[in-house]
Design a protein that fits this description.
single chain, 354 residues, alpha/beta, 8-stranded parallel beta barrel, two-stranded antiparallel ribbon, 31% helix
Length: 354
């Protein structure tokens, strides 16, 4: 039986445990999408994780979906991230950059130079987004042309190269939660009739091409993909997701990726998780849906072989030393949602150590 506290090989290295910090938007970047010293403090405090997966980082200016999120598309952003990754490595940690293009999830007021959000199809998502002027309705996005789709794929690859230059150990591509890659996968947001839409093999093509482009840029062993089959977040409609994700995994499995990361939005998708686990030959990271808080009780998912690593979110915010607390089965500090976003630093430092 495998323990969560046993080492595991990943991305060409050996992780000391199988507990990951899940990627979570923090909205604490400075103007220009610059990671700050507070960002470095946050990740360094959690360096005992086997793997840290960063908050979503936009690969281009038009990829930004929320206020105060960081980027990896300018020299200044790359330089700022070097301070973060250097601090994490000095503390013995390993950190992947999650590259997240938000697609239609965003607002023109968040973007420079008159840009508007982009998407596979000109369909606005239902709901609202936070902006400097309060909540705003999502707008109808610009439908990417074929040439613009290819340029967007190139943006992902360039951001991945920038991530490696910034000292990240690898890159996770955000294909979940209703953002751009997910928008291409889902029939409710992708109404295209060209090579990028329609049949399943066409709807998975964007995700596959992004993965291949990034793997070619930085190496497959440093490239990972996150998915959330059937997740309705951000207006996504996927009435029959499992065949789509099986087709996607079939296309990328032979590349030798660092891992596949599955986020479960509810317990009803465990069947799909197990199907992808069986199909994918590399390590599987699971952000599981659980009854009640996700704590040490979820570690049985590693012991029974459902996953190779488990990603923890809110509990890791409140407990920077979470691997040790999981080992001792608590006690746990209670997450405070009021500290999750914005400039309040309590989400980093105000919790007592064991």
């Amino acid at each position: 039986m495998t323990s969560a506290f046993e080492p595991v090989h990943l991305a060409g290295g050996l992780l000391p445990n199988r507990i990951a910090l899940a990627p979570m938007t923090r909205s604490r970047a400075a103007e220009g999408g610059i990671a700050t010293g507070l960002v470095a403090e946050y990740y360094t405090q959690r360096a005992s994780a086997g793997l840290i997966i960063s908050e979503g980082i936009q690969p281009s200016a038009v990829g930004q979906g929320y206020p105060f999120t960081p980027g990896l598309h300018t020299a200044e952003q790359v330089a700022a991230w070097r301070g973060v990754t250097g601090s994490v490595h000095a503390a013995g940690g390993r950190i992947f950059a999650q590259i997240m293009h938000s697609g239609r999830i965003g607002h023109p007021s968040l973007l420079p130079d008159g840009l508007v959000p982009v998407a596979p199809s000109a369909l606005a998502a239902e709901g609202q987004v936070f902006t400097a002027d309060g909540l705003k309705d999502y707008v109808t996005p610009h439908e990417l042309t074929g040439a613009e789709v290819r340029a967007t794929i190139a943006d992902y690859a360039e951001a991945a190269r920038n991530a490696v230059e910034a000292g990240f150990d690898g890159v996770e591509l955000h294909g979940a939660n209703g953002y751009l890659i997910h928008q291409f996968l889902a029939p409710g947001s992708n109404l295209r009739t060209d090579e990028w839409g329609g049949a399943t093999e066409n709807r998975v093509r964007f995700a596959v091409e992004v993965v291949k482009a990034v793997a070619a840029a930085i190496g497959a062993e440093r490239t990972a993909l996150r998915v959330s089959p059937g997740n309705p977040y951000n207006g996504i409609s996927e009435p029959d997701p499992q065949p789509v994700y099986e087709a996607l995994v079939k296309e990328i499995d032979g590349l030798g990726l660092a891992y596949l990361h599955v986020m479960e939005y509810g317990p009803e998708v465990r069947e799909t998780t197990l199907a992808l686990r069986k199909q994918f030959s590399g390590p599987l990271v699971l952000n599981p849906a659980t009854e009640g808080p996700t704590d040490h009780r979820a570690l049985t998912l590693i012991e029974d072989g459902t996953a190779d690593l488990l990603a923890f979110g809110a509990l890791f915010l409140a407990n920077p030393d979470l691997p040790e607390r999981l080992r001792t089965q608590g006690p746990y500090n209670t997450p405070d949602p009021a500290t999750f976003f914005g400039g309040d630093a309590r989400g980093y430092t105000d919790y007592p150590a064991l």
